[in-house]
Amino acid sequence: MLLDKLVASGQFDDDGVSRLIKACEPGHTEIVKTLFKREKYYELYRRRTRKSRIKTQKLDKVGREAIMLACKHGHKEIVKILLDRGKDCYKCDSSAKSPVMMIACEHGHTEIVKLLLKRGADYKNCDMNGHSSVSKACQNGHTEIVKMLLNREAVYTFGLSPVMQAFEHGHTEIVKVLLEKVDDFSTCYEVGHPTLMYACEHGHTDIVKILLDKGADCNKFDEGDKSPLNAACKNFHTEIVKMLLVRGADYNICGQRSCSPTISAFEHDHTEIIKMFLDGRTFDLPPVIQAFKHGHIEIVKILLEGVEDFSTCCEVCHLTLMYACEHGHTEIVNMLLVRGANWNKCDKRGYSPISTACEHGHIEIVKMLTDRGADLNTCDKRGHSPLIMACKHGRTEIVKRLLDGGADINRYDNDGQLPIIKACKKGNKEIVEMLLDRGADFNKYDEYGQLPLIKACKYGHTEIVKMLLDRLKDYTFGMSLVKQACKDGHTEIVNMLLDRGVECNECDENGRSSLMEACEHGHKEIVKMLLDKGADFNRSDRRGQSSLMEACEHGYEEIVKMLLDKGADFNKSDRRGMSLIMKAFEHGHTEIIELLLDKGAVNEIYVD
User: Does Repeat count among this protein's keywords (predicted)?
Assistant: First the structure.
């Protein structure tokens, strides 16, 4: 009775899903039959909806959704009932994307597909995304359905999707079925090559063999500039690599935007694949370099098998040794040295193996090279010796090793910079102390007029400054030190220099004093320190710029107050005739203008 009432009422749920749909989804065949036996109620409902186009559309929607649900869930009997009642097997679902045939193919319901084909369902067209019934079957591995559709000449090349789906997902049986349609892949790049790439990339060995037997080109690059062998190497598909090599795949060929298969194998440490490549074959140099660069010990051992004397193999020997030294591969360096690699040979930049090891901080390699008598004073094209490289990068242990080995402590580079200048810039106290104890010349200027002490002041290395000051007999160049420390705001260093009696009123060639530098850069504590030491606050440089002008121009209000309180001249102008108020006004420093006016500065801007 309840069922009769539901059918008679013709009611729908709020979401538009009818009792019919609810019966179709779980496969309640008897309920569906009962619903359709109540023909008078069904017709009654149709008559009720004639006045309403919306309700009629809702009824059509019910029919479409019912048959689609039945196809999706494999309820053949319900599909047959619905088809007998006139439900259209050509219709699409509410998204206009999936005809009933496509739904049945996607879910692998072979008997329903047969039924739909008998009733004339469309199996050739594609949906809005380019998917066809055969592509759905290929994607999900439903071999019998694919055969059925292909026997009816279903379209399988639209967008190459069916073919690609089968290859990508490794459905070997379907691939065989599809390939029966292609006699020679060597003339079919569009189908043959991408499918081979997919199979190589995803490791589908059987499919690769089928394609190669069909004539697919194993050396053809895809749009991403990769070859099939490259794809197989990258993903470590050993059997496929072996198969491709037998078919003549080129393991040294590179694309415009991609590396060769050998480089890929070396980079990813695929030892087994590299062994295959090595079997009676020769490499281009770059892949060999990769093994030494990345420290692949086992691969290097394979490469070095049979090589007893590297002294006759200059280019390979030197490059591999340089890469091993750069990246810290101690065991590989030892292998190369045992085979006679030249540890004093330099590259095009003038870098030697020991210089490279010093730069990158590989102490064990440095020890190994020094024990073999590596030249500790050879320089690159910039004049950098191993000791300079070690000092520049703060390699304390290496510096000690080089000094113990007799490295020239006062050898300078092309810029006239000694190892101690590099160490002072880096700020490594231990290295500086070590160099000083070994007699490093700390009074020598470089090409830019810089001393080690000036470098230490510039970069704020207080302890090194103190260490160097303790060794100085006079401070005739003290102005440079104070000015540099003031400019960079190193308060502690300025205080140390002033306490040692360094003159604070000396100026450089442009008339710039230490106080001017501190005012320009806003270092308030240093300004106070200099003023307390009697710095001349009214002195001007060659442009007529005073310390107060610097503070006004850059907007340092507290420094302006400090200078005004000391009695700085607030009506002074520079060589262009710009007064303090004009400079403050030009840069929008209103508070400073008020300060100057309160002190009685001439108002050149505002008119009452």
Answer: yes
